[in-house]
């Protein structure tokens, strides 16, 4: 039975990420700064983005031009994105100054940084599908940058259909997957110890 | 206990064995979600969101008829921005380059646009035209390519010579071009051009490329962008209409357009190819962000700048740890 792929996967999961790590009820005492709240605030803003985005997706990109409810939901989507970036950038800077990649946490940093870049791409396509003057202007201006390096041959910012599909399907899928992996890595590796923290005995290093 | 690098690495990687405190992750997440939700609802109610009505060809043709007319002539003559753009729309120019890398040219024409037919002749062909316009269209369609080019170029040159003052254009061998431009202007004024450019004979259409590019060939879109303070030279890449924050996260991308040599199109090779150089630089910088943990110098900054002393102040105080000197 131990040779089964399923059993191997389960055993590996249970070893690396037991439920106590996934849903902990304690944490290191050094986690005592407001900077630590910006990770969960980023996730919360992402939750509001997804929720408001799903409602907008059901009604279509032009709904908010003609409906007060649509305008409010669009505003929720807009401001949650703004807050998402504010929280994420503070979280990113905080993790940089903590050198949070220490102790085998390179993948955690990397998934977070890629998620940041994916977020920019997702937000950018969002601005292109507003079906308002901003969309017209941004698509006309932005095409030159993408065309200049050949990317515009396939990533056509003036193509509303393509941008809409990328914005509501492909990019959220990528961003969502990166976020899940990032959070699981945080739970698996734990919060990085302070830079100057040192073990008081070898038992703190070797299990 | 002073430790070497390897031991410190193992310590950082090992499960924390020091003091801990209670932590309710579900409660924390719920409070954060409620906080963000309240904040977002408040901002939405107070500020709303940007929604400036999109421009239309009708608006352009009505508000600045001469400019629309002259742009239509440029499309026929092949002198408009779109007609001379290069890849991915046509082969009229080599496009931008990154030194020896002509990526724009190499990928070729993947979104073909023929400004003469896509912007003028095909849309006009979808309409029930008055006699003079219908005759002009027939004459154009029956003429040889060299003749078409000669008519359109002559008229475009004549308009350019009088700086767009259409009333001052002298008579000349312009063939059906003035009538075609007049017909397209009337079509736009009637509000029929937007849909005709989009549909191009099809039913389901989701690609606005032709509309956007045609818009950009005249001054209407550009003037609107300037009025809204959205030009690239004024941080336009990250601004948006109204009193909204825009895409502030694009500040670094916008920044390069504000400084030499990127903000000077006459400066070769970088200024003249600023779009390509800035895209490439942002690509490298993005990769750099991902790889910070392995970049010497940058990865050491957190150790040298004592911001972490503030973040973990409480821990350092309770442990009596002084700043490490390295």
Features:
heterodimer; A: 207 residues; mainly alpha; Cytochrome Bc1 Complex, Chain C; elongated; B: 326 residues; 17 helices; 53% helix
Summarize the model shown.
The complex is a heterodimer of chains A (207) and B (326). Chain A has 207 residues and is mostly helical.
Describe the structure.
The complex is a heterodimer of chains A (207) and B (326). In chain A, 69% of the residues lie in helices and 1% in strands. By secondary structure, chain A is mainly α. Chain A has one domain (36-193): Cytochrome Bc1 Complex, Chain C (Up-down Bundle). In chain A, helix 3 (37-59) packs antiparallel against helix 5 (68-97), helix 5 (68-97) runs antiparallel to helix 6 and helix 6 runs antiparallel to helix 8 (160-189). With 326 residues, chain B is an all-alpha fold. Chain B has a domain at 57-227. Chain B contains 17 helices and one strand. Chain B is elongated and about 90 Å long. The relative contact order of chain B is 0.09.
Q: How many strand elements of chain B? A: 1
Strand content of chain A: under 5%
CATH homology superfamily of chain A: Cytochrome Bc1 Complex, Chain C
Please compute the radius of gyration of chain A using only Cα atoms: 21 Å
Spell out the helices and strands of chain A N to C.
HHEHHHHHH
- Give the CA-CA distance, first to last residue of chain A: 28 Å
Order of helices and strands of chain B: HEHHHHHHHHHHHHHHHH
pLDDT < 50 runs, ≥5 residues of chain A: none
Number of helices of chain A: 8
Question: What is the CATH-assigned architecture of chain A?
Answer: Up-down Bundle
Query: DSSP helix count of chain B?
Result: 17
Oligomer: heterodimer
